[in-house]
C-alpha cells in the first residue's frame, strides 16, 4: 500500500485505549530531532487521555535520555521486551531476564562464531557488560560510556575472571552487536537462531552496516505490552502499534491497528493496516485519525 492508504477494517475498530510505538525509524529518524507535528501529536494523545507506551530494542539510558531532551518521559518497554519501566517514576512494570542456562548457551553461540557481544544486564550500576574487545561498533562502545562494566559480577565490587563468568551470575536481559559488518552479524544469526530470538536488520545509526539483537526464546515487545495493560486495566484488543522492524513482528501481529512507515522492513509492511510516511518526513503524526 502507498503511504496514507488504509486497509479495510472489518469489523470497525473500537476506540484505541493505548498507542505503542517503536522509536528508531518510527517515532524519530534520529534521536536528536522530532518534527513539531510529531510533538503536537504526542500532546494531542495526552489531551485525549490515550496513554503512549514506547517499545524499543534500546536500553534504559539510550531510551530515557533522548526522550528527555523533548520533555518526554513515557513508560517504556526496552530491550525487545526484557524490561518495562515508567520513565517518569522509575517504577518497573515488567522484567523478564534470560534463564541462566539459555543466557550461557547464547553467549557460547557468539563465542563459537568468534564474536564477543554486548551483554545487557539487570544490574544496579551497569546497563551492559563488555569484554576488552567487544564486537560492536567503536562508536557504540563510546556511546555506552560509564554505563558499561567490564567483567563485573552481581555487585559493583565483585570482579570475575571473564565475561562468561559474569553471564553466569548476573541477570541477563539481552545481547547485541550494533553497527557491525553484515558477515559478522549473519554469522551470529546462524549460530543463535535455533536457541534464542534473534533480530538482524540494517543499522539506522551506521549506514551500510548491520545490527543484531538476541532476546530469550519466545520473548517479544508484546510481553511488555500485556504487562502494562494488566497493570493499568487497558484492553489489549484496543492497541494501536506504530513500528517498522523485524523485532516488531509480534507487536504488530497482536495489535488491532498497525501503522507502519513506508520505508519499513518488508516483514513489518506486510502486517500494516495503515502505511504512514517515513520518520524522516514526520509520518508518526499521521496516527491521530486512527484513534477514533
Descriptive notes:
- With 292 residues, this protein is α/β, with parallel strands linked by helices.
- Helix content is 28%, strand content 22%.
- It has helices at residues 36-48, 60-69, 100-112, 138-144, 163-169, 182-192, 221-232, 249-254, 266-269; strands at 18-21, 52-55, 75-78, 83-86, 92-95, 118-121, 128-130, 148-150, 172-180, 197-202, 210-215, 239-242, 257-261, 274-276.
- An eight-stranded mixed beta sheet has the order 5-4-3-2-1-12-13-14.
- Helix 3 packs antiparallel against helix 5.
- The chain starts with 17 loop residues before the first strand and ends in a 16-residue tail after the last strand.
- The mean pLDDT is 92.
Low-confidence stretches: none
Report the major sheet.
8 strands, mixed
Distance from N terminus to C terminus (CA atoms, Å) equals: 21 Å
Strand runs, count: 14
Counted by DSSP, the helix tally is: 9
- The portion of residues assigned to helices is 25-40%
Q: What is the N-to-C order of secondary-structure elements (H for helix, E for strand)?
A: EHEHEEEHEEHEHEHEEHEHEHE
Strand order of the largest sheet: 5-4-3-2-1-12-13-14
Radius of gyration: 19 Å
Shape summary: globular
Beta-strand share of residues: 15-25%
Mean pLDDT: 92
Briefly note the structural class of the backbone: alpha/beta
Oligomer: single chain
Give the topology:
Layout (H helix, E strand, L loop, with lengths): L17 E4 L14 H13 L3 E4 L4 H10 L5 E4 L4 E4 L5 E4 L4 H13 L5 E4 L6 E3 L7 H7 L3 E3 L12 H7 L2 E9 L1 H11 L4 E6 L7 E6 L5 H12 L6 E4 L6 H6 L2 E5 L4 H4 L4 E3 L16
Parallel strand pairs: 1-2, 1-12, 2-3, 7-8, 12-13, 13-14
Antiparallel strand pairs: 3-4, 4-5, 6-7, 6-9, 9-11, 10-11
Helix pairs in contact: 3-5
